[in-house]
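request received
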Amino acid sequence: MKKTQLYALALLVSLIGLSWAWYKWQVLQFPLSPREEVEVWSIEARLEFQGSGGPNKVRLQLPSRGPGAVPGFAVIDERLISRGYSEQVTKGKEGRQVEWVVRRASGRQVLYYRANIVRDSAESVESGEPKLLTPPKLTEVQAAAIDTIFDDVKARSADIATFTREFVREFIAEQPRDEARVLLDSLYTAEDRAQFFARALAIRSIPARVLHGMSLGEPKAFQQLQPFLQVHNGSAWVTMNISTAEESLPENFFLWTRSPRDLLLVDSDKRPKIEFAVQRNLADAVAIATRRTEVRSENLVKYSLLGLPVEMQGVYRILLTVPIGAFVMLILRNVIGFKTFGTFMPVLIALAFRETKILSGVILFTLVVSLGLLARFYLERLRLLLVPRLTSVLILVILLMSMVSVLAHQLDIPVGLSIALFPMVIMTMTIERMSIAWDERGPGTAIKEGVGTLVVASLAYMVMTWAPLEHLVFVFPELLLVLLGATLLLGRYSGYRLLELFRFRALARERDDAIKKGSANPVGGPVV
Amino acid sequence: MMNPFTIVKRLREIGLAGINERNADYVLRYNPRKFYPRVDDKVLTKRLAIEHGLPVPELYAVVREEHEIEELHAQIKDRESFVAKPAHGSGGDGILVISGRRGPKYRRANGQLMDQEDFEHHLSNTLSGLFSLGGQPDAVLIEYCVQFDPIFDHVSYKGVPDVRVIVFRGYPVMAMIRLPTRMSDGKANLHQGAIGVGIDIPTGLTRRGVWGNEPIREHPDTEHSIIGLQIPRWEELLHIAARASEMSGLGYVGVDLVLDKDLGPLILELNARPGLAIQIANGNGLVHRLKKIEAIAIPDPDPAERVAFSRREFPTL
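response:
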């Protein structure tokens, strides 16, 4: 494969990884750093009413769930709390509701609905077919008044949105005109007004509905849902604030329901009370993002690492950092030029350091390898064959490590050892290779390679356990594709290794001197 | 201390090949993996050399199984001297040189006596792969012990000096002679302390040497000058090297030869990843020469022509 093909492949692989990670970051809102927290609002709706002493039915409109159901937010958890009632949640075209049923209840009754809400930038689905509501019952005077207003407004407006705006303006003006005053007389609350506007617009064949929701601003103990008007202009719903005649919803508006039904309906009580309390918390961003993703699409989470049981996640947290360690080792070997024992030995040692932490790990490693070497040199005298010799060294290593652990414990030195299989076998192999190198290539080389292995292992360990990186690679494992791309890029790296510059410096110096003296050969080495 | 960027610049100017470049642009590209056994397995190398009519030390026996070790004593009882060599060894590891006998005992090149048990233990170690690349089970070659040409006695400490020629696409590119020292314990291995002395390709004369990574002009033990030595039968040696690379199937190969005082140049072994110290030994980089050879569209099928080309084009600068 030509070099350009290799680079193209590397680029492609990296782009795939980066774009998937970007999607998870921006759209699914997984956090980049481990300490990130997100706002979570806890909304509690408290219902209070009088029981009749007999059977009772309570119906409450609930916020919709599912991807994009509530614009700008997502309900990640909800609970229904009641004593002795049976509950049934149903989902209709206009929204969700819960129906509480009880056989016998008397006196004051209190029920709760609690939900946890987070921000969500999923595309919201503006649902609901435009329907004309039943026009309100008006007296002759009122009918005439509203007709006048409508004609007036029509003259001043260009489309349904502006028509509605001007219409609403008539009623919220400082000094409403007489016709408006006539109609306003019987409208006491914002809710009444909203319902009236929605129905009134049906007189002129404008489909309208009332939304209910609240602004999630500062935490408030007692809050009510506010009504907002929506009209359909033929292609989309347009929202109208009935207090300001603005075509928008307030900031942080949490849409509770679009249903035209009453928010709360209690069989036994004509005037039930409902109050909302809002509380704001900060929560771990990863947990929230996972939950949010689950709400959107169960499979996204089920088929990702976050869907694994927690113990397995722990294993993967570590496993996913291994490629990082390998990449560090790649750089240190092929670009810097460290010599090590074995291709992946340093990475395995770095993994072992996780148990022991770096300082005690290095000391322990050096100690055990040195003692192991001594033992092995003695074993050499016994002239054992290869396999029995290796086995003997392994047994000695394990005994050595146990001794060191016990001693350290007695001396109160925190070695933090957890006896894992890894370090034992690795150390045995290291001892074996080191002693062969010692015999065959001299103590200098053996020690150099031993030190090189330790240095690479330590550096790899430090990078692998850097918290932001650990977090990043677990939450965005696709970033490993970027690492793969980088590895491919280095695949044909034919430049000098840093330590080679040191090795060949004499030649460079000779040429440099020759150039300065003017006796250098333009192509090639120094003149002898 | 020169600044690293200047070092890089100067090294590029002299065409010095680093290990990454050697691997990426030459070894990976010109050495098909399937031919590696030809150079890694010395038994195979020897067989191929004999088939191609190339001179090698005579093979007395091959030991592959434990039980054959005991039988070996009888097989070689008529040989006064021989060398026991791992078939898959590298860098002189595990080579046992026996220069004589004393009754049932073997005398090693360093004068020590070795009893049969020790001898068998060494062979057994070799069979279980102690000296082989990758620790794989191995075989042992018992071959003729080269009587080295005394011409290098005064620049060598015991042991046998050998000549390494790097051959690229059949053309000799660079050469050096490796002289053992006391530090290398008689072994001609640069990593263990032998000296590498660069040889001028056209003439066969030595120009300068390297010990470790430092240039030198005299042998550290004998203190004789290592400059201006003439390698005997030089053209013949180059010719053999050029043909040896054909037999290996590898495009970038190091050919190690020894000079026997009677038999002349003999091929010891071939190397698919020849080291880079040869550049320090010669004071020249490989890359300029390699690129000149790469520019040749079709290598000349006649080895004599190829040798002639190299002698024209690659004087030590």
